[in-house]
Design a protein that fits this description.
Strand content: over 45%
Order of helices and strands: EEEEEEEEEEE
Radius of gyration: 13 Å
Number of strands: 11
Structural class: mainly beta
Length: 117
């Protein structure tokens, strides 16, 4: 089970940090990702981090503004979002993919981020 939190309403230029706590799985055996879905749009990839937390990748749309990290001791993955823009408004989902697997096996319930102009 994945439980995401940290969303809310923020003004453009502001920051938020999302958290996602995993339970019922061996967290360190999973690659973790963040995705988002804006109203009326398809879900899109935002960022991912490997099982050790060393290798990360973020989408071009958020590069330089968002950072993904994880704490395996706390079974938690984070998404630090800085310089937020109205276009970042979406429901953000965390997801877990088994190491070596191509697909994400588990999804959180989502947390809403709203950026006002």
């Amino acid at each position: 089970q994945l439980q995401a939190s940290g969303g809310g309403l923020v003004q453009a230029g502001g920051s938020l940090r999302l958290s996602c706590v995993a339970s019922g799985l061996t967290f360190s055996s999973y690659r973790m990702g963040w995705f988002r879905q804006a109203p009326g749009k398809e879900r899109e990839f935002v960022a991912r981090v490997n099982w050790r937390g060393i290798s990360t990748y973020v989408a071009d749309s958020v590069k330089g503004r968002f950072t993904i990290s994880r704490d395996n001791a706390k079974n938690t993955v984070y998404l630090q979002m800085n310089m937020l823009k109205p276009g970042d408004t979406a429901v953000y989902y965390c997801a877990a993919a088994a190491v070596g697997g191509a697909d994400y096996d588990y999804w959180g319930q989502g947390t809403l981020v709203t950026v006002s102009s």
